[in-house]
Specification:
It is a single chain. The chain is of the alpha+beta class. The protein is built from 9 helices and 20 strands.
Length: 464
């Protein structure tokens, strides 16, 4: 009876572990963004903890304290490796897959335990990888973080070491955290951090920068009295930290080499949580990195890949993003041809061309310089009847027997239709269209559309 119960308990734990693992994977797939952010936070905390525990481990070893285990991540144990006299012992899930017998439940008696290699000097420490990917710990003989110090006659016990040695072990964790922070800071200082330059990449219309006359390509060489080591964050911070109606002095160098002095007052814009000047950071001409899915969609729509660098627009060479945007903004063609260079592993650097269709982005009220753009339907699916196949067949039989009126197929909107009017509103914007339909109270509204019928010829239709 006990053997069957032990067998059941053992494999039930395995089954439960698999179910938990599957549930975690499914949740991660369904909430990839949230899980990614959580994992980044856990990784950061985990690295801090690991450095802390590694400090305890190093000083304990140097002090002659017996370290029974050093674990990367938290229990239960996924993998344990220890050098013993007969060879290197490897344990896999020893706390879950235990052997049946007199020591059943003892992690030392694991089902997946085997020894590799030849004989050698044994080690006191088992190096482990935990199943929960967070932090880690050091297990020393005679030391317990959550209980009283365990008494032991072993001179290598933590409790039997001099007070100075124990203090050094305890202080080593924080010391290693400080040293690691200093090292990381030195590496970052020597390598440098890429910050956007203090250059005007773009100017938002009607913003303080636009009203002052700043142009894309202007380099800010002084702002609020600061001249040295300027980057774009200085511009953003000067606006965000300025007081209401405070005048910020700025000196810029134009692309032709001339300089000019400007005075700006930051404003709170509806889409920004802080005050800004309306200056947009400069962008690069290199396509940014994307996720595999987004990169595939981007390539299908543009023919470009992450890492491609744009060299020319319609045959005109460009060196900055604002040059590219200036050409696009002033073209009257429906599309442009971008020439880019691509680094190919087999062919080296190659030149690629891509024709990009341009789209006009309307303002929030739908008007562009008092002109109302045409409201065109796009990406409409086929509208199908909500009746089931059986009900349609029954209705057909009743029609043949003269017991039901024929169903009239109502016309419907199609992709490409241009809305000329809805109800009493002519040339509606998207917002006006929705508002008119919402006020109809479920009643039918006539919709006038301009539809291409054949060979590019447009014809007016009314849909009820």
């Amino acid at each position: 009876m006990s053997e069957s119960k032990g067998f059941f308990d053992r494999y039930f734990r395995v089954f439960l572990l698999i179910c938990i693992g599957v549930a975690i994977v499914m949740f991660a797939v369904m909430h990839i963004g949230v899980v990614g952010n959580v994992l980044m936070v856990l990784l950061g905390f985990g690295l801090v903890i690991m450095v802390h525990e590694f400090g305890h481990f190093v000083v304990a070893k140097a002090s002659g304290i017996k370290v029974e285990a050093f674990s990367l991540f938290m229990p239960p144990i996924l993998l344990g490796v220890q050098r013993r006299e007969e060879g290197i012992r490897i344990r896999i899930l020893p706390e879950i897959l235990t052997k049946p017998g007199k020591n059943e439940g003892d992690p030392q008696e694991a089902m997946l335990t085997f020894t590799v290699g030849g004989k050698g000097n044994p080690s006191d420490t088992e190096y482990r990888i935990g199943l929960i990917p967070f932090g880690g710990f050091v297990k020393m003989l005679g030391q317990d973080d959550v209980g009283s110090v365990k008494s032991s006659k072993d001179p290598r016990s933590f409790a039997n070491k001099p007070a100075l040695s124990r203090a050094a072990v305890l202080a080593a964790g924080v010391t290693f955290n400080v040293l690691s922070a200093v090292i990381i800071f030195m590496i970052a200082f020597l390598k440098g951090i890429n910050l956007p330059p203090a250059v005007v990449g773009g100017v938002i219309p009607n913003s303080p920068a636009a009203q002052a006359g700043l142009q894309p390509g202007d380099e800010v060489i002084e702002i609020a009295g600061k001249k040295k080591d300027l980057d774009f964050t200085n511009i953003a911070m000067a606006a965000a930290l300025s007081g209401r109606d405070q005048h910020i002095e700025m000196k810029v160098r134009h692309e032709d080499g001339s300089q000019g002095d400007y005075t700006l007052v930051a404003e709170q814009t509806p889409n920004q949580p802080i005050r800004t000047f309306g200056i947009v950071a400069p962008d690069t001409l290199t396509i940014a990195a994307l996720t595999p899915k987004d990169a595939y969609v981007f390539y299908k729509s543009t023919g470009l890949r992450p890492g491609d660098r744009i060299l020319a627009v319609n045959g005109q060479k460009v060196q900055t993003n604002w040059e590219l945007m200036d050409i696009i903004e002033n073209t009257l063609a429906p599309d442009v041809v971008l020439t880019a260079e691509r680094k190919d592993k087999q062919k080296g650097t190659v030149s690629v061309e891509s024709r990009i269709k341009l789209r006009l982005i309307a303002s929030e009220n739908g008007n562009i310089f008092s002109m109302v753009p045409r409201f065109q339907m796009e990406n409409l699916g086929v509208i199908r009847s909500s009746d089931s196949k059986i009900s349609r067949k029954v209705h057909g039989w009743l029609e043949r027997l003269g017991l039901a009126e024929p169903v009239k197929q109502k016309p419907f909107l199609r992709s490409g239709d241009i809305i000329l009017g809805v109800g009493d509103v002519t040339c509606p914007t998207y917002q006006e269209f929705r508002a008119t339909v919402g006020k109809s109270g479920g009643k039918e509204l006539p919709i006038d559309v301009l539809r291409e019928v054949a060979n590019g010829v447009d014809s007016k239709h009314t849909i009820l």
